[in-house]
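Catalogue entry: protein

Sequence with per-residue tokens
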Amino acid sequence: MEFALYPLTTVYGGNLFYSLERAAEVLELYNRWIDTLPDEMTSAVAFMNIPPLPAVPEPLRGRSFISVRGCYCLVELKDRYDPNNLFRFNRNIPPSSVRK
């Protein structure tokens, strides 16, 4: 296995949470989206069952989601590799409200 390393000082990443009822839609759009991404973007999909523990924030506690994860350098390489703002998946499907 071979890895390419990039000289970075800041990297951004995060999760977008969607209700499980939208899983088919999320997966279909995710599949199209990843074909457009450069090597500098890492992404994944995860099905998450959040435990009903007091330490978990109330909006997430005891619920299940499909999550789209992304990680990308949005500082030094943003202008060079992402002038068209590729990390925009959340505009394709509005994230479900995690508030009751």
About this structure: The radius of gyration is 15 Å. The chain is about 20% helix and 25% strand. Strands lie at 12-19, 42-49, 64-72. The first helix runs from residue 23 to 34.
